[in-house]
Amino acid sequence: MNKEYQVTAGAEVHCELKSNTKMFSDSNNHYGTFANTNINEIDFAYPGVLPTVNSYAVELALKASLAFHCKINKKMHFDRKNYFYPDLPKGYQITQARSPIGVDGYLEIEVDGITKKIGIHDIHMEEDTCKSTHYKDKSFLDFNRNGVPLIEIVSEPDIKSDKEMIAYLEKLRETLLYLNVSDCKIEEGSMRCDVNVSVSKTEILGTRTETKNVGSISSAGMVVMVEAKRQIEELERGNQIREETRRYDEKTNETVLMRVKEVGNDYRYFPEPDIPFLVLEDDYIEKVKSSLEILPDERRKLYLEKGISLVNANKLIQNKQLSDFLLGLEDIDLVIASNLLLGDISAYLNKTEKGLTSTKLTKDKFKELVSKLSSGEITNKVFKEILNDLMETDSSTLEIISSRGIQTISDTSYLTELVDKVLKENEASVLDYKAGKDRALKYLMGQIMKESKGSANPSLVNQLLVEELTKR
After folding, report:
1. 253 Rama class: left (phi>0) / alpha (psi -120 to 50) / beta
2. Is the dihedral of CA 55, 58, 64, 69 positive or negative?
3. What are the start-end ranges of the E strands in 336-400?
4. What gap in Å lies between CA 170 and CA 186, rounded to an integer?
């Protein structure tokens, strides 16, 4: 790509809200039901019917606005966006054009070790349109999606590369999932992204194009690159860039012209006359703010402070159920705890196709388990033996160990003899340890645990082993 040009991108992300009913009617909001069954007269704007604002959808939109550090419009109204298209039965879409619920927010991303703020221009509420399906020479409309509550999150033009676009969308999705605002299932259309791209040789932004309904986060990153490349090639040929609406063809890896872009005046926005102004009181805003969960960035910081690796911290955050389980645990070794959750416990959950909350593993039982592993009272071998009982019975860790007759060897005399035997049989590893090769210690530990059939207290063995190696 020509380095003389500066690439600038932004994203408009539509997220369906996790509300049981639609934005302005009491029709069901359930994905996957039979086509054209979740509809009523309000969805079709029959004469004499009036829309009513879904208060829970407003709460979810407010949560998102607060989480992304937006200033809140305490007094707002809805607007009619007028245009003709088959998927819009009213002939207009109810949205927020002039008074979005949240403005001037931001989201922090990290790319190649550099932290950057991506500005959020606004977050506004609106209703979704019908779902169009095209087959051969026919088009089909499913009105179930018509009126489903949405928020549209509009970024500032602060994104400069495909990596930044991907990081922005991943962080956006991660945060919305933790807020329980949206399920963000791109494959079901509950999260959809439009990508805006422009190029310029100066600080003045070039003419932008909009690529609609990009099908995945990785594809959004590709759009930034291929559309920027297309625009640069056009400019180098002496052509001008038009404001266009385009689509991304994943098979050819290129954007394709759909239509010359409309301007705002074409939509003839005007205030929705059937919905009164919406006023958010300070007490209500504070109540919603206090209900926000601990978000991924805060969790990641906490995990890292407790010694959990960045890889494991990110894996925990990707699994909210495991993260929630670990978050409330105190006064235990969180490194051991995270390894257990991400290792054998996750393997058990995958094998049995269960969620953690569907098992018998309570926080108290888990704390007891971690404590005994940390102190060396039980070994990893013992843990593996009792895993199924931990997950499937109401018995405590101690009760399970006792019922199985499992004991950990902590007899110092016996273990000293065992250490001495292993050292005599592995003189080469002793010399490696003396030469500063750390892996030799791990090897010798492994041999001792093998000799004891996994029953030796690992903490005590490590102590005795180091003492004996120092003497030699």
Report:
1. left
2. negative
3. none
4. 12
Residues 6 or more apart in contact with residue 264 via CB below 8 angstroms: none
Tell me, yes or no, if the pTM score tops 0.85.
no
pLDDT reading at 138 higher than 60: yes
* Residue with the larger pLDDT of the pair 383 and 64: 64
Mean per-residue pLDDT for 280-301? 95
> Which own/partner pairs from 132-136 qualify as long-range (CB within 8 Å, at least 24 positions apart)?
132/86, 132/87
- Distance between CA atoms of residues 271 and 351, nearest Å: 54
Quickly tell me which residue has 């069901």 as its tokens.
Answer: 28
9-21 pLDDT tens trace: 999 999 999 999 9
Distance CA 195, CA 318 (A): 25
User: Which band of pLDDT confidence, cut at 50, 70 and 90, is reported for residue 276?
Assistant: very high
Q: How many C-beta neighbours within 10 Å does residue 132 have?
A: 13
Average pLDDT over residues 316-331: 90
pLDDT at 264 over 60: no
* Burial profile 279-293: b = 16 or more Cβ within 10 angstroms, e = fewer: ebeeeeeeebeeeee
Phi/psi of residue 270, nearest 5 degrees: -150, 155
CB count within 10 Å of CB 238 equals 6
DSSP label at residue 291: T
Q: Identify the three-state secondary structure at position 198.
A: strand
β-pairing, 209-214 with 244-249? Answer: parallel
